[in-house]
Amino acid sequence: MIVAFAAIVVSRIDPILLQFPFHDRAKLVPQFEFFADHTWQEYAKFLCGVREHTNNGESVAVLVPVIDWDRGYSYAYYRASYFLAGREVLPLFDSTNHVHPENLRRAELIAVWRAPVPPTHRKLVWSGDGGMLVRR
User: Fold this and answer.
1) How confident is the model over 1-11, as pLDDT tens digits?
2) Contact 24/73 with Cβ under 8 angstroms?
3) What is the pTM for the complete model shown?
């Protein structure tokens, strides 16, 4: 039984994973970043720019063209929460796809990527990588 269990475990291990400890990790970073963001590569660069132009403690709402939680807004929101650590990231939509206008009013800044800018925030702080950061 032990031999059968060991054979099952060994047969399920992907040999590629066993090579990672022997590779230069610095060279693998671009590949892993690509796999993490797939078609949202420019969004990740945009969030880096937003981070450079905001301060810890500021509240930032995230607006992207996808407003459906399961089709992409959740990814945009959680990715922004990761990149903008130290800032309060406010969602404009939730998991039931309800709009949260109170978060739009509460946000000091809005990170707008490939979407129209809301009229509540007019002062351009920064623009680049497919989007802009605007302040109330």
Assistant:
1) 899 888 888 78
2) no
3) 0.77
